[in-house]
User: What shape does this take?
Amino acid sequence: MSEKILFIDDEKDFLEVMSERMTARNMKVSTAASAKEGLTIAAEGSFDAVTLDLAMPEMNGIEVLKILKEKNPDLEVILLTGHATVKDGIEAMKLGALDLLEKPADINALTEKIRAAQAKKMVIVEKKSEEMVKKIMATKGW
Assistant: This one.
């Protein structure tokens, strides 16, 4: 099963390049050129991971991360930035980010992070399905 990923970044050239590179790795890629567009797309779809630029003009990545995690706590978010600081990394991790990578991101490292996010999502989905089956079995008199 191919990974489904959303890239949110205000740099359109970066989005195009990353989309091509990840599509070549058999990933299904959606892109958003602004934080607001990214939040809309994330709310409408189901993604294994979201990669998110830390520095965007209308809303920074930390703010977007907070909103994404409020709406979907299980969503895996990878922050990408050209301006990484230890403080930003710590804050991102406290808010539930999977990782913070510096641009230009090593494509192999990013690919592995995305695959790890998908594997984690699959475990969460399996666990929720199992809990639902147990609940159904407990409430039915079969």
The first strand starts at residue 4 and ends at 8. Residues 107-139 form the longest helix (33 residues).
